[in-house]
Design a protein that fits this description.
The chain is built from four helices and six strands, in the order H-H-E-E-H-E-E-H-E-E. By secondary structure, it is of the alpha+beta class. It has one domain: Hotdog Thioesterase (Thiol Ester Dehydrase, Chain A, Roll), CATH 3.10.129. The chain has a six-stranded antiparallel β-sheet.
């Protein structure tokens, strides 16, 4: 699917209240890559003045959701994308605005072939969160599935 930012970003902002709450900005959202920005907002700071760990996790998970919709949006009539599990590694202190970049860890065609075969495929999405100086402040690995509709 080659849908671009306005459709995917606007859809996620309309359907995911937490993305709106954090004022996430969907910069890019395609089947190849998703980029989402968390502005610097004092109401979501932690005890050291940077974005709270929970806000950073939500940023990364939202970027992963954007690429999943970009890659598998054409499968939504027959399957629901769901995050299965996730892990995050906080690498460096994040200060100011941060940006998450998500990439799929498996080829789209391979995942769809599993779905076509009647299986419930799982696939990783890798996300790097960077601060303005491009230093990686966190990395996420989120495992998603496409759950076939009953």
């Amino acid at each position: 699917m080659s849908e671009t930012l306005p459709n995917i970003g606007e859809m996620l902002l309309a359907t995911v209240p937490m993305a709106r709450t954090l004022n996430l900005e969907f910069v890019e959202a395609t089947a190849e890559r998703a980029v989402v920005r968390l502005p610097d907002q004092s109401e979501y700071h932690n005890h050291v003045g940077g974005p709270h760990a929970g806000a950073m996790f939500t940023l990364g998970e939202s970027a992963s959701g954007a690429i999943v919709i970009g890659a598998f949006g054409d499968q939504l009539s027959r399957a629901v994308p769901l995050a299965v599990r996730a892990e995050i590694d906080y690498k460096k202190l994040a200060m100011g605005p941060v940006t998450a970049t998500a990439e799929l860890g498996r080829p789209v065609a391979e995942v769809v072939a599993e779905l076509d075969a009647g299986r419930r495929p799982e696939f990783p999405v890798h996300v790097a969160i960077r601060r303005a100086d491009e230093a990686v402040t966190a990395e996420l690995r989120i495992i998603w599935t496409l759950r076939p509709n009953a």
